[in-house]
From TrEMBL:
Single GO BP term: carboxylic acid metabolic process
PROSITE patterns: DDC_GAD_HDC_YDC (PS00392)
Keyword field contains Repeat: no
Catalytic activity of the protein: L-serine + H(+) = ethanolamine + CO2
Residues making up the signal peptide according to the UniProt record: none
UniProt name for this protein: Pyridoxal phosphate-dependent decarboxylase
Gene Ontology molecular function: carboxy-lyase activity; pyridoxal phosphate binding
Length: 490
């Protein structure tokens, strides 16, 4: 599972200052968040409902508690009409300034205690503030200008070319665009696969992101959920069984370059080999690679499965607000030019073509990405990958030394451990939980000092949770016996 990692050198084929978070926050300025309520639900992850997934094998279900977030209506900020004399008194402006100031303090506090979700919060885009006065919209095809002149296509195509070099595809062979989020990248990649193979069956591991199964429902696709290994990686033995049962129909596969909960990386080469051994020629399958987080980390880790369009894949997507770091959700989606014609259509209103999911697209996001890629470059990302992997190993080792069950996949910076018993602690550190496990995603902004504060608090709290006959849970079913240090497996 875990082992020594080697950081790769800069790929030969490829040519933020953060604001200090102060400790002297004013407690009254931080909006208090009541604990979420607990509901009882059937077994499975607290994600998209799977009840409507037709043709899927359902595991035996058992009742367990799922914690839902608070109802925001209880703390929402109402929109009120200005008073007749507000223009002269300035009361409304003063009220709004106060609200924003308190909200900023809340953001500072919540950022200080953020560990569970894969967002790189270490960035500084102050130089781009001069562009916030413009409504920049890249509606339509990024490679063909429309009649709307306030766009950033020149930045967008520059970013796309950068990723094309990373994933080894020539400029004249790819098509892509900057999406509004990682989910849109998955929706687009799977849509292209469905359009190439209208009668194809979608195959995805059970630990794939919920957006993959959302796509299956949206597009009314037959979908097969494939079992996973204990690491979270797709089980190619089960994939083989399901492929052979449906040899008469083309296969559309989602390959995870880092699963949501365990950070597991599917073996792309083994998936392709399994398809070929089951009799699927390259013109009878389509592979979409969901590289939301690790798609940008993998090129710098030796022995990692290589994502490349030199292999028979159809599309790759990555999130821009995760490892890269961006103040708004965004992503990058690339596919083969040969595939995109099935989606493209001319739009006279735009004087352009369109093959995207959305119509209007955020024109600021490409500029943010272009700015960071230029500032950091491949060497900068290489250093950040090395830092994340090193700090992830530090966290895993300290958890194990404290007698806490923990797992870290070799190619990952996601540390999985036993779920804390206290939901207030979970919310304080914004941990992502599923069943009996939680995880910390070690990003470039997560320092050793921050991990130490978290670990010390966890160990202290844990001493009060487990006393007398109350024992830590066994999570061997989630992380394997070798990573579980419960009373049974210690």
């Amino acid at each position: 599972m875990a082992g020594a990692l080697e950081i790769d050198s800069v790929p030969p084929n490829v040519n933020g200052k953060v604001e200090i978070l102060t400790d002297d926050l004013i407690p009254t300025a931080v909006v208090a968040e009541p604990l979420p309520k607990v509901i009882t639900a059937a077994g499975g992850a607290p994600s998209e409902s799977e009840d409507d997934d037709e043709g899927l094998e359902k595991p035996a279900k058992k009742s367990r508690e799922i914690v839902l977030g608070r109802n925001v209506h209880t703390t929402c900020l109402a929109v009120t009409e200005p008073e007749a004399n507000d223009e002269f008194t300035g009361d409304k402006d003063a009220y709004m300034a106060g609200v924003l100031a308190r909200y900023r303090k809340t953001l500072l506090e919540r950022t200080k205690h953020h560990l569970g979700y894969p967002y790189n919060l270490d960035f500084d885009y102050g130089a781009l503030g001069q562009l916030q006065h413009f409504s920049i919209n890249n509606l339509g095809d990024p490679f063909i200008e429309s009649n709307y002149g306030v766009h950033s296509r020149q930045f967008e195509v520059g970013v796309l070319d950068w990723f094309a070099r990373l994933w080894e595809i020539e400029k004249n062979e790819y098509w892509g665009y900057i999406t509004n989020c990682g989910t849109e990248g998955n929706l687009h990649g799977i849509l292209v696969g469905r359009e190439v193979f209208p009668d194809g069956i979608l195959y995805a591991s059970r630990e794939s992101h919920y957006s993959v199964f959302k796509a299956a429902r949206m597009y009314r696709m037959d979908c097969e959920k494939v079992d996973t290994l204990i690491s979270g990686e797709i089980d190619c033995s089960d994939l083989r069984v399901k492929l052979l049962a449906n040899k008469d129909k083309p296969a559309i596969l989602n390959v995870n370059i880092g699963t949501t909960v365990k950070g597991a990386v599917d073996d792309l080469d083994l998936v392709i080999q399994t398809l070929e051994e089951c009799g699927f020629s390259h013109d009878r399958f389509y592979i979409h690679c969901d590289g939301a987080l690790f798609g940008l980390m993998m090129p710098f880790v030796k022995r990692a499965p290589k994502v490349s369009f030199k292999k028979p894949i159809g599309s790759v997507s990555v999130s821009g607000h995760k490892f890269v770091g961006c103040p708004m959700p965004c992503g990058v989606q690339l596919t083969r030019m040969a595939h995109i014609n099935v989606l493209s259509s001319n739009v006279e209103y735009l004087a352009s073509r369109d093959a995207t999911i959305m119509g209007s697209r955020n024109g600021h996001a490409p500029i943010f990405l272009w700015y960071t890629l230029n500032r950091k470059g491949y060497k900068g990302f290489q250093k950040e990958v090395q830092k994340c992997l090193r700090n992830a190993h530090y966290l895993k080792d300290r958890l194990r030394a404290a007698g806490i069950s923990a797992m870290l996949n070799e190619l990952s910076s996601t540390v999985v451990f036993e779920r804390p018993r206290d939901e207030e602690f979970v919310r304080r550190w914004q941990l992502a939980c599923e069943g009996n496990i939680a995880h910390v995603v070690v990003m470039p902004n997560v320092t050793i000092e921050k991990l130490d504060v978290f670990l010390n608090e966890l160990v202290e709290k844990r001493s009060t949770w487990y006393q007398g006959d109350i024992q830590p849970p066994c999570i061997a079913a989630d992380v394997g016996k070798d990573n579980c240090v419960c009373a049974l497996h210690k």
